């Protein structure tokens, strides 16, 4: 849950990048760190295993500056995607204000995307949140690999699989090249701030 | 597509999955490529490719086993542990003890048991957190040392005076459950039957707290009791009394309380057992404070 300090006119909110293992959540944060280095309010913390799998979480604090008289600070997190880290994944999700679901475009990862989205829905529910009411953006990552002749799912198919009911904004992306990363971030920030305005009425 | 092209396509796909860290998918693809080559041995260099593929499959199987075995997270630096503690202390703006507890739990969840143990060893000193802190101390000791060590710690508490019989019973049940689930056959001592009986507590209708420390020192405030369960009374404090809410932190001992019941009034002491923000209903935004009446 966002922290709104009325006296200091500050809002601190939390956005979590969720998705199956190896879908590119950490790569998204690394690109944000590179592209928006002026807004980055500290260092990016990543705790990985030898094989570059996220072990705990990644953390990147950014500052958006003043919006309607309020200083907006955002904490970006990724969750560990591997199945065995279910309990820490849930812990990282606690108090979330907005979610980016990063889906893997590889055809072979179709089922993993769906399982991970169900996991997100279940974990949000356990925290008393409804996925349909949570600011959410879908990102269809690794689109660049079509050039390497790897079977990818068409975006239409991914929309049908993941976004048929949610009907949330979605972006095709190649996080490794930075494509679609900024658009995804801007959209989730916008949706989150709109939701926080409804809940906290911060922009008076 | 020629045979060679088909083989190249399969191998390329497997290699990409491998570089992406998708080990199972890569293995499936390498195996599929191998089977394809075996069926089509007329392909150029098929024997050489098969040998190379065997090696790749074996190497990837070793990698998969290694990843699956990585169950125990490493101990991280103190800086990272401080960050974990800070980021996952969700109550830090409302209740410092609750925040410390959440931070210690988070450290344990992330496998930082040694640091977590240090934190819980501090928290066991706080009356309202004593039992949960004790359970977590045992949990950490099982992870760091052994189940036997946790039992030894429990025995130490049994012979000490930190925990009451009721608290020890609850902790024993927790430890018994861990022992039952383990393959070790470990004896867990019983608690001697010196069950404490709480004295009969009257129905309290209101209380007056006189502060003997902190910014409110010397002042007294009166509250109606909204609910009582045994020796725990609940009060509602308006969110307009911000300073008062801050002062009444969890674990604070209140030495001068006047208790009013319909048939008597008596002086006593209590401890702030919990403080909760009311999130819905007509009292939304106010705080519910539980005070445990202490036997004196």
Features:
heterodimer; A: 204 residues; alpha/beta; Rossmann fold; 8-stranded mixed beta sheet; globular; B: 296 residues; alpha+beta; 6-stranded antiparallel β-barrel; 10 helices; elongated
Description:
The complex is a heterodimer of chains A (204) and B (296). With 204 residues, chain A is of the alpha/beta class. Chain A has one domain (7-194): P-loop containing nucleotide triphosphate hydrolases (Rossmann fold). Helices cover 31% and strands 27% of the residues of chain A. Chain A contains five helices and eight strands; from the N terminus they run ββαβββαβαβαβα. Chain A is globular and about 55 Å long. With 296 residues, chain B is an alpha+beta fold. Chain B is built from ten helices and six strands. Chain B has helices at residues 3-19, 23-39, 46-69, 78-87, 96-109, 113-123, 130-144, 147-159, 165-181, 242-247; strands at 206-210, 220-229, 232-237, 253-260, 265-277, 287-294. In chain B, strands 1-2-3-6-5-4 form a six-stranded antiparallel barrel. Classes of the chains: A alpha/beta (204), B alpha+beta (296). The A-B interface holds A 3, 21-22, 45, 47, 49, 51-53, 55-56, 59, 75, 84, 87-88, 91, 94-95, 106, 108-109, 142, 145, 148-151 and B 9, 12-13, 16-17, 20-22, 25, 28, 63, 66-67, 70-71, 73-74, 76, 80, 83-84, 87-88, 90, 93, 106, 109-110.
């Amino acid at each position: 849950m966002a922290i709104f300090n009325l006296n200091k006119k500050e809002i601190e909110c939390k956005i979590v990048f969720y998705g199956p293992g190896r879908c590119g959540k950490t790569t998204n944060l690394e690109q944000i760190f590179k592209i928006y280095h002026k807004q980055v309010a500290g260092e990016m913390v990543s705790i990985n295993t030898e094989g570059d799998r996220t072990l705990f979480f990644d953390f990147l604090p950014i500052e958006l500056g003043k919006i309607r008289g309020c200083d907006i600070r955002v904490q970006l997190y990724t969750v560990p995607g591997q199945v065995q880290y279910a309990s820490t994944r849930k812990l990282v999700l606690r108090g979330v204000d907005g979610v980016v679901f990063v889906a893997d475009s590889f055809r072979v990862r179709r089922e993993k995307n769906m399982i991970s989205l169900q996991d997100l829905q279940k974990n949000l529910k356990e925290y008393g949140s409804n996925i349909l009411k949570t600011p959410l953006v879908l990102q269809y990552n690794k689109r660049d690999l079509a050039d390497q002749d790897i079977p990818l799912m068409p975006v239409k198919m991914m929309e049908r699989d993941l976004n048929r009911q949610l009907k949330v904004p979605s972006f095709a992306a190649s996080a490794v090249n930075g494509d679609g990363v900024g658009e995804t971030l801007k959209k989730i920030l916008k949706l989150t701030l709109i939701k926080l305005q409804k809940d906290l009425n911060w922009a008076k | 597509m020629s045979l060679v092209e088909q083989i190249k396509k399969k191998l390329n796909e497997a290699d990409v999955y491998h570089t992406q860290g998708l080990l199972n998918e890569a293995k499936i693809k390498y195996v599929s490529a191998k089977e394809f080559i075996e069926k089509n041995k007329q392909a150029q260099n098929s024997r050489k490719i098969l040998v190379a593929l065997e090696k790749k499959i074996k190497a990837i199987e070793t990698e998969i086993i290694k990843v699956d075995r990585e169950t125990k997270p490493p101990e991280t630096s103190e800086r990272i542990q401080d960050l974990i503690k800070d980021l996952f202390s969700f109550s830090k703006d409302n209740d410092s003890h609750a925040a410390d507890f959440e931070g210690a739990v988070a450290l344990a969840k992330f496998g930082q048991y040694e640091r977590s143990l240090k934190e819980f060893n501090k928290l066991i000193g706080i009356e309202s957190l004593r039992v949960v802190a004790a359970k977590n101390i045992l949990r950490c000791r099982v992870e760091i040392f052994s189940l036997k060590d946790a039992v030894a710690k429990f025995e130490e508490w049994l012979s000490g005076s930190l925990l009451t019989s009721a608290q020890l019973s609850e902790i024993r049940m927790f430890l018994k459950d861990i022992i039952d689930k383990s393959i070790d056959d470990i004896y867990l001592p019983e608690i001697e039957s010196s069950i404490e009986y709480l004295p009969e507590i009257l129905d309290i209708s209101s209380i007056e707290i006189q502060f003997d420390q902190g910014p409110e020192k010397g002042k007294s405030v009166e509250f109606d009791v909204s609910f009582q369960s045994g020796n725990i009374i609940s009060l509602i404090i308006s969110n307009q009394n911000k300073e008062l809410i801050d002062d009444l932190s969890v674990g604070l001992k209140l030495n001068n309380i006047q208790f009013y019941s319909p048939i008597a009034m008596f002086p006593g002491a209590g401890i702030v057992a919990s403080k909760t923000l009311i999130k819905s209903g007509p009292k939304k935004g106010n705080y519910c404070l539980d005070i445990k009446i202490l036997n004196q």
